C-alpha cells in the first residue's frame, strides 16, 4: 500500500519592523504631500519639508548643514527619516543609530561617531575589465576523483556556452572557475560574466526571456539579455563606504604590526583615514571613482553630550561629510555633560547649522489610516468596530499603544475561533496590557507596596 502524507504549508518567517511599511515620503511630482502614499499618513508640512531636503541633497547643496526633526513621541520622526532614505535610493548609504550608542567601553565616543560618519559616505569605484558576458545556454561540468579521498568527486573543468543578442561563444574553463560556477549555482538561463584575466565569476540574474517555467516559490533578479559580442570591455562599478576602505587598510597595517609583536588596536588610526582620503581623492581626480554622500541619522539626539556635539559641528564643516539628520522629542532641557539648558538639549551653535522640521500629534482620521496600514503590513484582519476601538485608544492614550495591541488582539481572536479581530478582542487586550498612564496610576495606588 502506497504511503501518502499530506504536507502542511510552511509558515513564512517574516521580520516586521516598526517602519517596514514606509516606501518613501509620498510626494507628487511637484513635491506636494499626498494624504496617504508610500506608507505615510498626514504630517503634510514635515513631509514636504523633507522632500525639499532630499532635492537639496541630490543637487549637492546641503554642505555644512544638517536637519533636526523635532516633535512629541509617536509623531513619525523616524518614519520621515526612513522616507528620506527611501527617496535617495538604494545606492545612497544610510546609517541609523541612537544617541546612546556612542557610550562604549571599547571605543571612544569620537571613534564611534567617526566610524558612523565614514559608513555614511559611499565611494562608487569604476573599473574597466575584459569579460565574457552573456546568458548561459549550455553548461557541462566534468568531475574527477579527489586525490586524497577517492569517494569524493571534485570539478576538473567546465564547458559553458554564453550568448548575447548578437554573438555566441563556447568556453572551456579550469577547475577554479568550475568551482565558482558550482558555488554560485549557475544554470541554463542565468546571465553571468567571467573576468578574462582573473577568472572571477559574477552572477547578474536570470534572463526572463529564457524562462519557460515559473514557480510560486522562487526568487531571482530578472535582467535583459546583453547586447554586443560575448567578449567585451566592461565597466564594473563597486560601491563601498569610506569605512570599508578604512577597515581594509587598517587590516594590512594590523597584520604587519602583529608580525613585529606590536599590540593590535580596535580603533582605526587617523593616519590610515588620511591615507584612504588621499587615495579616494586621487581616484576621483582621475575619473575612476565618484563620491556618494549619504545620510547619518541619529535618533534621541538629546542623549549626545557636549563633546559629541562639538565633534559633529566640526565634522559637518569638513570636506568629506555626510548629511546629518537628528531627531529628538525633548523640549528645553540640559545639554548632557553640562548644567546649561538649551532647546532640545542641543548647543545653540549647532542648532544654527540645522534645518529644523517639526512634527505634530496625529489627528483621529490619521491614526485610523496608520492603524489600517499597519494591520495590512502585519496581516491582521480587523473589523471596522475593532479599527474604531483601536483609533479611540490611539487618540486617548497613544498611537504606539494602539499599534502594540493589534497582535495580542489577534491572538485572543484566534483562541476564540474567530478569523477577524473584533472590538471585544481589542478591549480584552487592553485589560491585559496597560499603557503608561495606567501604569503610573497603578504605582501611585500601591506606592507603599513597591520597593524603593
Automatic annotation (TrEMBL):
Gene Ontology MF: a single term:
hydrolase activity
**Superkingdom, natural source:** Archaea
Reported EC number(s) for this entry are: 3.6.4.12
The AAA+ ATPase domain, residue ranges? 63-374
InterPro entries, per the entry: AAA+_ATPase, NA-bd_OB-fold, P-loop_NTPase, RuvB-like, RuvB-like_C, RuvBL1/2_DNA/RNA_bd_dom, TIP49_P-loop
Keywords from the UniProt entry: ATP-binding, Helicase, Hydrolase, Nucleotide-binding
Q: Does the keyword Amino-acid biosynthesis apply?
A: no
Write out the similarity annotation: Belongs to the RuvB family.
Protein known as:
DNA helicase
Species annotation: Hyperthermus butylicus (strain DSM 5456 / JCM 9403 / PLM1-5)
Amino acid at each position: 500500500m502506497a504511503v501518502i502524507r499530506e504536507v502542511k504549508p510552511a509558515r513564512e518567517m517574516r521580520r516586521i519592523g516598526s517602519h517596514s511599511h514606509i516606501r518613501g515620503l509620498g510626494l507628487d511630482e511637484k513635491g506636494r504631500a499626498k494624504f496617504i502614499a508610500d506608507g505615510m499618513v498626514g504630517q503634510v508640512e514635515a513631509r514636504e519639508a523633507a522632500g525639499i531636503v532630499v532635492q537639496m541633497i541630490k543637487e549637492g547643496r546641503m554642505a555644512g548643514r544638517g536637519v533636526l526633526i523635532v516633535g512629541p513621541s509617536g509623531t513619525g520622526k523616524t518614519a520621515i527619516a526612513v522616507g528620506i532614505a527611501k527617496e535617495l535610493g538604494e545606492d545612497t548609504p544610510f546609517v541609523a543609530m541612537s544617541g546612546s550608542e556612542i557610550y562604549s567601553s571599547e571605543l571612544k565616543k569620537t571613534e564611534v561617531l567617526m566610524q558612523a560618519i565614514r559608513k555614511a559616505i559611499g565611494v562608487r569605484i569604476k573599473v574597466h575589465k575584459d569579460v565574457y558576458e552573456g546568458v548561459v545556454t549550455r553548461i557541462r561540468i566534468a568531475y574527477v576523483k579527489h586525490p586524497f579521498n577517492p569517494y569524493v568527486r571534485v570539478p576538473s573543468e567546465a564547458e559553458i556556452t554564453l550568448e548575447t543578442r548578437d554573438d555566441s561563444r563556447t568556453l572551456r574553463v579550469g577547475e577554479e572557475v568550475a568551482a565558482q560556477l558550482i558555488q554560485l549555482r549557475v544554470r541554463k538561463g542565468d546571465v553571468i560574466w567571467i573576468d578574462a584575466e582573473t577568472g572571477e565569476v559574477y552572477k547578474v540574474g536570470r534572463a526572463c526571456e529564457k524562462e519557460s517555467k515559473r514557480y510560486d516559490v522562487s526568487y531571482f533578479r530578472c535582467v535583459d539579455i546583453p547586447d554586443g559580442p560575448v567578449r567585451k570591455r566592461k565597466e564594473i562599478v563597486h560601491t563601498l563606504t569610506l569605512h570599508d576602505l578604512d577597515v581594509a587598510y587598517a587590516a594590512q597595517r594590523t597584520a604587519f604590526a602583529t608580525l613585529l609583536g606590536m599590540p593590535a588596536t580596535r580603533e582605526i588610526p587617523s593616519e590610515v583615514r588620511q591615507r584612504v582620503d588621499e587615495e579616494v581623492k586621487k581616484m576621483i581626480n582621475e575619473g575612476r571613482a565618484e563620491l556618494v554622500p549619504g545620510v547619518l541619522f541619529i535618533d534621541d539626539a538629546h542623549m549626545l553630550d557636549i563633546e559629541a556635539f562639538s565633534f559633529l559641528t566640526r565634522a559637518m564643516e569638513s570636506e568629506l561629510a555626510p548629511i546629518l539628520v537628528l531627531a529628538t522629542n525633548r523640549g528645553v532641557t540640559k545639554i548632557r555633560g553640562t548644567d546649561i539648558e538649551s532647546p532640545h538639549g542641543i548647543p545653540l551653535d549647532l542648532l544654527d547649522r540645522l534645518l529644523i522640521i517639526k512634527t505634530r500629534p496625529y489627528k483621529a482620521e490619521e491614526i485610523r489610516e496608520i492603524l489600517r496600514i499597519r494591520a495590512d503590513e502585519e496581516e491582521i484582519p480587523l473589523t471596522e468596530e475593532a479599527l474604531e476601538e483601536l483609533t479611540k485608544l490611539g487618540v486617548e492614550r497613544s498611537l504606539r499603544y494602539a499599534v502594540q495591541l493589534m497582535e495580542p488582539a489577534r491572538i485572543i481572536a484566534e483562541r476564540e475561533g474567530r478569523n477577524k479581530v473584533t472590538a471585544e478582542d481589542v478591549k480584552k487586550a487592553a485589560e491585559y496590557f496597560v499603557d503608561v498612564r495606567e501604569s503610573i496610576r497603578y504605582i501611585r495606588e500601591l506606592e507603599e507596596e513597591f520597593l524603593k
